[in-house]
Design goal:
Blueprint: E1 5-11, E2 21-24, H1 26-47, E3 70-76, E4 81-90, H2 113-130, E5 133-142, H3 150-165, E6 169-176, H4 181-187, E7 191-192, E8 194-195, E9 198-199, E10 203-205, E11 210-218, H5 227-238, E12 241-244
Parallel strand pairs: 1-12, 2-12, 5-6
Antiparallel strand pairs: 1-3, 3-4, 4-5, 6-11, 7-11, 8-9, 10-11
């Protein structure tokens, strides 16, 4: 069992941080961002999710929105990035057209496009009523030797812990069926995006060459067996180092608390968006 690892958070600019140990450093931010994009490039290329021409000469695979997103990094004992996930946090006033999910194939489908929009807009309306943020989750990648470890589980469950620290969130992701990634996300609380009781079906994504599912998440509704771990991670992330490129604050609300938990470990493959 691998135990020698730590978490690292990268925060987007213009975000006022009221949890964690903040470091304002252009150099550190760029180093960690490059390391994360290199890991993503290697894993996605090996998995067949991207083509060689999409990877930069230095091996990095940047994705649109990286510098406007939060990044959760798993760092090993040799200070290498071995796992990552990204969170594009939107105000609840964001229009559907500005979301990444609005660009997915099903959102442009003649039958399902209007249903995808209706499902997302229903969550946005609720987010406005309850003063929640809306988060698009994705960009997961994990080195092969770390799959099946506790760290692999924590990098997924941390989505709920961070959502609580952000004051509560609703969110969505485009998750691949490959490596059972979408089914693993369902185990921690993800459910099919749907409207009026009708679930949006899986679809073939030509961009990543695999079957994908649209999942939604509610930070208040994780699977019960993971609640204690979420609380434990909230406490841990509350004191985790947060690196930011520039200091130009806006207001964001956070909370946190602690607990203890032990869980059965599961393997995790990449999830793209």
């Amino acid at each position: 069992m691998r135990q020698n690892y730590r978490f690292q958070l990268l925060a987007p600019p213009r975000t006022r941080l009221v949890f964690g140990r903040t470091k304002i450093s252009q150099q550190l931010y760029d180093q960690h961002l490059a390391s994360m994009q290199s890991l993503r490039g290697r894993i996605y290329l090996k998995d067949g999710a991207i083509q060689p021409w999409e990877v930069e000469e230095n091996g990095r695979f940047p994705m649109r929105g990286d510098e406007q997103s939060w990044h959760f990094l798993l760092i090993d004992g040799e200070e290498n990035t071995v796992g990552c996930a990204r969170y594009l946090v939107h105000p609840n006033t964001v229009p559907f057209e500005m979301l990444r999910i609005a660009k997915c194939p099903l959102a442009r489908h003649s039958r399902w496009g209007s249903k995808v929009r209706a499902a997302v807009e229903a969550d946005l309306q609720r987010a406005r009523r309850e003063d929640l943020s809306y988060v698009e989750i994705g960009g997961w990648a994990l080195s092969e030797e770390w799959r099946g470890t506790r760290a692999a589980l924590e990098i997924l469950v941390a989505s709920y812990a961070l959502a609580h620290l952000w004051g509560g969130c609703l969110g969505s992701c485009m998750a691949t069926v490959r490596h059972h990634s979408s089914s693993i996300l369902r185990r921690i609380g993800g459910v099919s995006l749907g409207v009026n009781g009708e679930a949006i079906p899986p679809y073939e994504d030509p961009r990543y060459g695999c079957t994908m599912e649209l999942l939604r998440f509610d930070s208040d509704s994780p699977t019960q067996r993971f609640v204690a771990l979420i609380n434990q991670l909230k406490a841990k992330l509350s004191s985790t180092s947060v690196i930011q490129r520039a200091k130009a604050p806006v207001w964001t609300k956070f909370t946190g608390e602690a607990a203890e938990h032990q869980l059965r470990l599961v393997p995790v493959g990449p999830v793209y968006y």
